[in-house]
Amino acid sequence: MSEDVYVIGTDMIRFGRFEDATPPRLAAKAALMALDDCGLSIRDVQAVYSGNCTETMVGQRTLQLIGQTGVPVVNVTNACATGATAFREAWIAIKAGLYDIVLAVGSEKMGKGMLVPKNSGGTPIPSEGLAGSNTMPAVFAQMGMEHSRAYGTTFEQFARVSVKNHHHSTLNPKAMYQKETPLEEVMGSEMMAYPITKLMCSVNVDGSAAAVLCSARKARELGLTGRAVRVRGSGLASDPFSERNLVQADVNTVTRLAARTAYEMASVGPQDVDLVELHDCFATAEICHYENLGLCGEGEGGRFLDSGATTLGGKVPVNMSGGLLSKGHPLGATGIANIYEIVTHLRGEAGARQVEGARIGMTHVVGLGSACAVHILEKV
Amino acid sequence: MSEDVYVIGTDMIRFGRFEDATPPRLAAKAALMALDDCGLSIRDVQAVYSGNCTETMVGQRTLQLIGQTGVPVVNVTNACATGATAFREAWIAIKAGLYDIVLAVGSEKMGKGMLVPKNSGGTPIPSEGLAGSNTMPAVFAQMGMEHSRAYGTTFEQFARVSVKNHHHSTLNPKAMYQKETPLEEVMGSEMMAYPITKLMCSVNVDGSAAAVLCSARKARELGLTGRAVRVRGSGLASDPFSERNLVQADVNTVTRLAARTAYEMASVGPQDVDLVELHDCFATAEICHYENLGLCGEGEGGRFLDSGATTLGGKVPVNMSGGLLSKGHPLGATGIANIYEIVTHLRGEAGARQVEGARIGMTHVVGLGSACAVHILEKV
């Protein structure tokens, strides 16, 4: 097609709860860190894509803090896929030949409480709203129960997802939580919606992440290919139909659609992927996404987890960052934080949690509403 | 550079106040009308860019009403430049070679009252907020007073902008208002912030507009070049500095920056432009933008208006639609409604308000915050 696009710089702040933070302040920190990561300054950036779910003009307000250069700024929102969408639009702008160096930055100031952003303009699943099952834990509990019914997946298997991701996060200094969380603690924590306990829910945190994207040509010219990572595939999808089981439509089907697009564009298959950051907004989702992304066969998600395949040292480690369950989930930042995690492994810079020999990694986010983004990244 | 991009279909609803409307319902109407305009269906659309300032996931919610096909949907916001930004991102996605047919749709459900969107996340000009001058009429009154001080522009000249645009709107069946508004009525209406009276403020209305963009190659294949319009230039800019007169930075300088980019890309100059839809959010702004867009010399805006150059039949008619002052200004829709107006003239389909022989047209929107988008369109 057109120009190859590299990620040449990326970073994220340690996720946490910052009472005085604003989205622009959070975004500014990550943006400066990502620029510093590749030795560039805001003056080198030719366009900015900002992802944030709750406030207005966050991209421009970020530049007020780190330098107003007059470049095009676009603010995007796409529920939980907001950050990934900002990244994708930056990639598209370079592919179009308009720019060589584009900054994608995602940020979110979350409140405590349920994973429903402010100003959401209605429940994500209107027809279920009146039944009281429009809260996120209920939606993803239903997803888990459906998997249990069809394939016999157990409460304990779902809980082990959380144990694994919390274990991974003990190796990630940028994660909100960094402590082992044993199975009995996960299973014994407050029940939100069976089979989801409180420790099987993603963590509401404030956060930000950024990536500097660059045309391959310019990266070579700048001598920045040594730590560069190629964007090999990008898929974005919305619901392909409306008159079916809503969870299936919003989460499973849309993931399969986006993954297929990304795999086809990248000319790789699931067997080529060395590690994955996927959307474990609730523990049940991770097991379903193993199958949605083709990492294992239909109905084998629970056994795939049990085999250790998705744990550090396994065949395809999943959510090495600790995932949304332990690293945390600041909506607009999450998609780019996933990019940061994969890039860090592909560079061989992930320290204690390094997936050895990683050459190809995948990111996945899915927002109810609906938007699913899948990216496939490759070591240059 | 890359693929030529055409606008092959476009339409807008008549702007007005619709108590029961929601942004997705407004957007759905315009989208279907634009598709109908080129004889395509939602099944032909490969990606959707939605512009809306106040609600979430409007693009996806629009597809729930007109057909969920699973295509990528991106929601963008950029203050008053929101619709134009959605249009621009659609153009970029085709230029990148990712898609042949992309829908851009903008919508807004405005309340009555001041032109400050809900959820604005703070005043647009924080440092002026405490002084009470952060309302839009005050900002644009200051812009006008500055022009008066420097060039002697009069209250009456500013008021004549509104007279002209209201006159144009009498010829536009899609405008909110369609009645002549004499000078004495404009000057005698309630004073908002000198030199801006109530009839010199843009009209808060609900509205939507849509455009179907298509690669030149595909348009030829579909036999849709007969009424097609080429996107010849696109400029998007944000504030180039922070420590200066804020109105100058936000409105004038950013317009010049975006216009320069668009002119350079299009390889045309102001003298080549046959008509313009520019951001007359207040009457004072239109006169300043004549100069910002290079339609006349510095300080000559008032006299340029007096000469009749910008009235139907003049050298370069401005705001033939009636502009924001009389057609109305539903934030997320405005940028695409401008595209609709220019395309309609370039096609020779503007009826009583047709600018005869128009071959090149320009659109301009500028949002405080800040974002300015300029597009140059050309008859194929």
Automatic annotation (TrEMBL), chains A, B:
GO molecular function term, any single one: acetyl-CoA C-acyltransferase activity
Domain Thiolase N-terminal: 5-182
Species of provenance: Rhizorhabdus histidinilytica
SUPFAM superfamilies: Thiolase-like
Domain Thiolase C-terminal: 253-378
InterPro entries: Thiolase, Thiolase-like, Thiolase_C_2, Thiolase_CS, Thiolase_N
Name of the featured protein: propanoyl-CoA C-acyltransferase
EC number(s) from the headed UniProt entry: 2.3.1.176
PROSITE patterns attached to this UniProt entry: THIOLASE_2
Gene Ontology terms: biological process: lipid transport
Statement: the UniProt record of this protein carries the keyword Plastid: no
One Pfam family recorded for the sequence: Thiolase_C_1
Entry keywords, A to Z: Lipid transport, Lipid-binding, Transferase, Transport
